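Box 3.1 A note on notation
Throughout this textbook, protein chains are presented in two layers. The first layer is the amino acid sequence; the second is a token string describing backbone geometry. Keep the layers aligned when reading.
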Amino acid sequence: MSRTIQPADQPPPKGHYSPGIEHDGLIFVSGQLPITLDTRQPFTGDIEEQTELALRNVEAVLREAGSDLNNVLQFTIYVSNMELWTAVNKRYAEVMGEHRPARAIVPVKDLHFGTQIEIQAIAAARAV
């Protein structure tokens, strides 16, 4: 059986999707943008700040499901310009510490609201 994950302190998405779905011991987190989730305002800081905010938004969905970033098995990171990758990877490493989940980087032309990064994840529901 599947369970929808909707953090209580965040408004529901405007689109037809859920922030996360837990199914069979896994949590599937929809792509998270660097936006302030309580107001849904895009964040226009530098790419390192955008990277951390997007990761923290993934973390918020995981926390609501009873998990955390240390249980992430795989990230897919969409970045608007591959020239940003060094800065993205730097902040990503700072946030993730020693945990090194599988990861894919996908360059894209445009992201919603003019942001430069979007991050989706698959995580274990409990400690791995």
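The first helix runs from residue 47 to 64. DSSP finds two helices and eight strands in the chain.
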